[in-house]
Amino acid sequence: MSEGHEALKLREQAYVGYTRSLLANKIKPGQFITQRQLVAITGLPLGAIRELVPRLEAEGLIRTAPHRGMQVPQVDIQLVRNAFQFRLFLEESAVRIFARSASSDLIADIRLKHEAILARHNAGEDQGLMEEAEATDLMLHEAVIDHLNNEIISNAYRVNWIKIKLIRLAETRLYVRMIPQVIGEHMKIIDAIERHDEDAAAHAMAEHIGIARQRALSI
């Protein structure tokens, strides 16, 4: 393996390590952190961390504060508004294209997974349900975005989703008791997609994102 490829691999490992630590709440929103602390958290060499920082800054996942070092983004009203506005701009348009041209098999698979989550909830099967529900939630949104077949948009969406997850960690996670509501909102989107009704799909998606945004703003 070439040195360049090995360095690239380390940078990617450092990125994954940082984002996982962020979402696992090992690194707190608003926390000041040093490169050496990132070395300890990720278990990767200082060189990889130094090369990681510009990417994190560019993606808004860390910022450099003069005379204070690096700071993890804070969960505040501005972050909530920005992150959800970005989602709305992308997903409202993307779901129109998805409703127009997604395959019947893909749509059917998405519906089945949502119905399975709702059935488990109604049966009182709570073990691992929240994690599976969150994965199913993300599955729909990523399917809509990835259907565009645009790597730039897909990558930008995933960075924004990390920020959405940070917001959810501040008391707005998809709790088990919220599953019927969230799945119900998704079902409206899926129903419209199955009918190839672009306007209804876009409206249902905008409504779903608006509800999530309002929930986040209430924290």
Keywords:
73% helix, globular, 3 strands, single chain, 219 residues, 4% strand, three-stranded antiparallel sheet, mainly alpha
Any overview of this molecule?
This protein has 219 residues and is mainly α. The protein has helices spanning 3-23, 35-42, 46-58, 77-101, 104-122, 129-146, 151-169, 179-194, 198-217; strands spanning 32-33, 63-65, 69-71. The protein has a three-stranded antiparallel beta sheet with strand order 1-3-2. Helix 1 packs across helix 3 (46-58), helix 4 (77-101) runs antiparallel to helix 9 and helix 5 packs antiparallel against helix 6. The longest helix is centred in the middle third of the chain and has 25 residues, at 77-101. The model has no long low-confidence stretch (mean pLDDT 89).
Query: Helix share of residues?
Result: over 70%
Spatial strand order of the main sheet: 1-3-2
User: How many DSSP-defined strands?
Assistant: 3
Strand content: under 5%
Computed over alpha carbons, the radius of gyration is 19 Å
Largest sheet: 3 strands, antiparallel
Secondary structure category: mainly alpha
- Uncertain segments are none
By DSSP (H or I, 4+ residues per run), the number of helices equals: 9
Quote the average pLDDT. Answer: 89
Q: What letter string, H or E per element, gives the SSE order?
A: HEHHEEHHHHHH
Shape: globular
